[in-house]
Predict the structure.
Amino acid sequence: MSEPVYVTGIGVVAPNGLGVKEFWSSTLEGRSGIAPLTRFDSTGYPARLAGQILDFDAAEHLPNRLLPQTDVSTRLALVAADWALRDAAVNQAAMTDYDMGVITSNASGGFQFTHGEFRKLWSQGPQFVSVYESFAWFYAVNTGQISIRHGMRGPGAVLVAEQAGGLDALGHARRTARRGTALVVSGGVDSSFDPWGWLSHLSSGRVSAVGDRDRAYLPFDTAASGYLPGEGGAILVVERADAVARRRAPQVYGEIAGYAATFDPPEGSDRPPGLRRAVELALDDARLRPGDVDVVFADASGVPELDRAEADAFREIFGPNGVPVTAPKTLTGRLYSGGGPLDVVAALLSIRDGVVPPTWHTADVPPDHGIDLVLGEPRNRSVSVALVLARGRWGFNAAMVLRAVADGAGSARA
Amino acid sequence: MSRRVVITGIGVRAPGGRGTKEFWDLLSSGRTATRTISYFDASPFRSRVAGECDFDPELEGLSPRQIRRMDRASQFAVVCAREAVEDSGLDLAATDPHRIGVSLGSAVAAATSLEREYLVLSDSGRRWLVDQDYLSPHMFDYLIPSVMPAEVAWTVGAEGPVTMVSDGCTSGLDAVSYASDLIREGTLDVALTGAADTPITPIVVACFDAIKATTTHNDEPEQASRPFDGTRNGFVLAEGAAMFVVEEYEHARRRGAHVYAEITGYATRCNAYHMTGLKRDGREMAEAIRSALDDSRVDPTVVDYVNAHGSGTQQNDRHETAAFKRSLGDHAYRVPVSSIKSMVGHSLGAIGSIEIAACALAIEHGVVPPTANLRTPDPECDLDYVPITAREQRLDTVLSVGSGFGGFQSAMVLRSVGAAA
Amino acid sequence: MSVMTLDDLRRILVECAGEDDSTAVAGDIADVPFEDLGYDSLALMETAARIEQRFGVRLPDDEVLDLATPGAVLDAVNKAAAGV
């Protein structure tokens, strides 16, 4: 029997809140982080709404030394990691360096930084390219920088699977903890809102071109018209239960009780899609049944046919209207590697507070979806088991089951 | 009884030859395949040599649609995946797709396509506000490159976990470790795993120029990659890919598959020191090696060959030599150590998988590939690096290591099936 | 006549590699080792590249990392500029 693995610390950098407290109150009160892009003059672009983090001043949070060598995505990831470790009251100096790992997901690397370097290369010449380009760009950067900042010398890894990658990272963190590393800092943070990054997002053909920020991203709604990209994400402290008890962690948010990933068959195949199987495997992994699930945090693509496929999976697994479903990401947009981890945070806070945030803005759900989508206002409900789903473009499916921990395993959870 | 992981199929595209056989011929003969960069005018750059592959996607059987859609690195990965499946004799149609997964390593992924699209969108760097009229429908997949493992998954019909592992220069080793984890824990029976990188494009050449990590032996392109040599002054950038069919041992045995080697242990550690620098003592790499040997339940003295990271930078080769001494003790002085980067260069995320292929083939053929271009000893690198000429020797236990920016240090132990049983 | 002053170098260093609040990059740092100022080899490589672009003076790769203090960098730059 494998040792349980818990989440003991959370750091959030979201468009609707820096820090857990602000994010959670925004999520429950419906404060959106969606706004027209302000990073550059976006007037000529066919879509301009995004979930942006506008009140983040990296110099307030990080040593000045780190600024010249980091992209905005890495600065956000470093700050989220700082907050998560502080929240978990981890004393790095008191732990064995090899007993702390860092496993993150990434989708677009240090894209704004690298855009600047591409520009220097081609408008000025190779000798103008920064020495920092060799690592500020690549997908591994956040794991490397977090490990250096906190003296963590255990296993390091980086997974890329578009929006599904963040749950994969947390799943691998749990695996790594079970293999012997007491504590793993894990999650995902992305940002790519320079002009080139933004245009690349638009090339997916799935970004909503609706100009009203409350009507642009409406997953499961009859007026669904695609999604909005966002930036940020969450970093979590993932710890093996025995280690949590030994160091008397101040709180346990919940157990990562189950995880699974699947991949869809190729387009045109008559084989069924993989989302339902991911859920079933994750529930098996947690030794739970569909009826045990109190709430589902949906992937909520906002692309009508993908919403339908997800609703179909929910009906097949839980029965019609069989479980409350929600998608608070309508307030942040889709965060790529950060999306899954931020939904895990929302799920853990639902467990803590006994309240399910609604899918803000979505109002008109077709009855034949057959899903009990939480709409309009938070729903008070005791949550012991939450399921989080994330799908990545081209067929990635990931599912994670979070479970309440009754006595916090020696922790002082109120 | 724990589940064992074996390599049953190999596909390689590396500089100097097409396919696994030509790759092994190159390594075992000690020839080098580095040359002056031919893909673009490299004259404004500091380092102008590279390990280029003569890769013709049409000849490799990719369709015009695939060629249009896929970044060069994806093309390499798909071609190698096909070759690996064919080599393994695995009947995909008879294998449950749910039990097949993909773990693909890459450090800079779609760099080549990113740069091509950038030039079009920005009017060759003149515009910051890029021009949407020239937007490629595939741009999203160059921004977020997880389409790479998806392409491999479609090639083999995988419906288990599919992911890209992007740990910089240890990606190729760590991707195979990740797949091995999934097989060990029972999630998969078969994985297509390996790595691909095609970074010979101006932005990547420029960023290693800036940090002076690549060589300036531009006048002797064939002798430019000089791991452990006293005159080494940087690595030679390269491209390539290697993919494997890895299987749970009983699954392979039941279908009578040929087994190249068993993956008996692996580990990765971060040095938490510096994004590009290495401490001289090799402490964290040594720890990764020790941990991989523990995972394999073998003593350091049984290691018959060490496939080094051996990039040919001043600091790497010293660092690594220290790590071998620290982890293997006196045995470090007795065991042959070599770097195939002397022959095929350093293909960033791909090389870790290409080196695993070299290890599997070394076990298969009983030959230690040499370190080419090693003519001037360096007093600080005082191990047996198998200079110039390959060595025939029975190999049962082989260690492969990798090291990369971000501080990643990884190790893997491969054993002949007889030895591991 | 110097082409580059200590203030010029200070500005470039901070731009290329930041500064700690604790370390005084202000004041007379000419003889303070880069290591004590908290600047590593990357910071120096980046600094050398910016010096070349702004002052047209190229410091050979293998010499840059041997320059241990801001004073030594100024010396090398100004000598090179004067054609010494």
Observations:
- Residues 142 and 381 of chain B are 40 Å apart (CA to CA).
